[in-house]
Design goal:
The complex is a heterodimer of chains A (about 230) and B (about 230). Chain A is an all-alpha fold. Chain A is globular, with a radius of gyration of 18 Å. The relative contact order of chain A is 0.14. Chain B is of the alpha/beta class and about 230 residues long. Chain B is about 35% helix and about 25% strand. Chain B has 8 helices and 9 strands. In chain B, the strands form 2 sheets. Chain B has a 6-stranded mixed beta sheet with strand order 5-6-7-3-8-9, sandwiched between helices. Chain B has a 3-stranded antiparallel beta sheet with strand order 2-1-4, with helices on one face. Classes of the chains: A mainly alpha (about 230), B alpha/beta (about 230). The interface between A and B is medium-sized, with 21 and 30 residues.
Amino acid sequence: MFKKLYQKELSYYLNNPLGYIILILFSVFANFWYVKDVFVVGTASMRAFFDSVPWFLMIFIPALTMRIFAEEKKVNTIEVLLTLPVKEWQIVFAKFFALLTLIIIGLLLTVSLPLSLSILSKIYLPEVLVGYLGLILFSAMMVAFSMIFSLLTKNQIIAFLVSLLGIFSFLVSGSDFFAGVVPRLINDVIIYYTPLYHLSFFNRSILELRSIVYFVSFTLTFLLVNKFFLENRD
Amino acid sequence: MIVVSSLSKIFEKTIAVDGVSFKTKEGEIIGFLGPNGAGKTTTMRLLTGYLKSTSGKVSINNLDPIKNRLEVLKNIGYLPENNPLYLEMKVSEYLEFVSQVKGEKNIEQITKEVGLDEVINKKIEELSRGYKQRVGLAAALCGNPKILILDEPTSGLDPLEQEKIRDLIKKLAKRKTIIFSTHILSEVEDIASRLIIINKGKIVYDGVKPKGKGAVEKLFKKVVKN
């Protein structure tokens, strides 16, 4: 059942220019950013790339997730879906994994970067893989988070803007800028809850168990929030 | 069998359904009539478990549509109001998806019965309103449900298409319990065996369909006015 729902969700994006446009834009921006560093700044490092990608995802994740429930609510296909013999969690998970698959395709479109880097210098493959794993875990958390706003409104633009603001808040709270403007005591507490802090381990090729637990538990919590709102529709 | 007892639904301060009770028998075709905003769609959504009631009880074949959602939905074929469909999908893709979810193996027979053979490979968005309605009906028929709940199945169709859908409902009625809502009183005269009229959330008539041309209209005007 889950497989059928997953295929339906994924095929919408793969049979629609929207999915390709978003993926191509993401790939172009991410690749450009890296190439700019190589030629303008004169550095060629995957760490700089991994540090910058969450900020691109801040725009691309809401762009992909904004329609996932909002459009179904607007045209009322949500009523069709919810009167089929499928469980609410299956609907939420199918939509989540379809979106995450698209993000992973988007990230795969950037593998040319470590490949080109391997020509310029020696790269250690596990380091790159850990970096990408961090981005996938971060994306999973933010996709589950963004889906909530698509579920709470029929308006895709509102869903996009609110989840953009939400992801921005997550990112800023873990940034150097935030650390500079809030009292140290507060920052010391908040930092452990911010995705950038946990992502920094992956970017430095450290496979930290507590960071994996952080991303997985936040993702599951957000998915449960989705399920709760879907069950308590009115 | 559907048993509804003292069913109510309140949206914030609006009472959409107010203490509705009725029972259905197997093989009945029930015409569900009422003016706009009378509570027809809300009642149907409560029957399918799409909405939770504020108070009262619904039982579909002795099962609660909220507590036993999946089991109940396996027994119900539902055509929602305005027939929402995934327009970007092909007819074949959509029906394949619904049939797989509902465990229907004989989708070819349903498409043939509903008359979708000609357009099976077209995108739903390219279809006429009549064909779209048939797609919605075909989806409702998947899984061979014993109960069909059809919310305005002929709404917006031209008279010829209305007649075709009506003929189809009559054909299906031989083996299913059907509840359909409509604004078209002649439709009730034509196909319903029983009539339920709802007004301002309350049932104002539940009984046999009055016989004779224009009798339903006369009854409707009388009970809705009071």
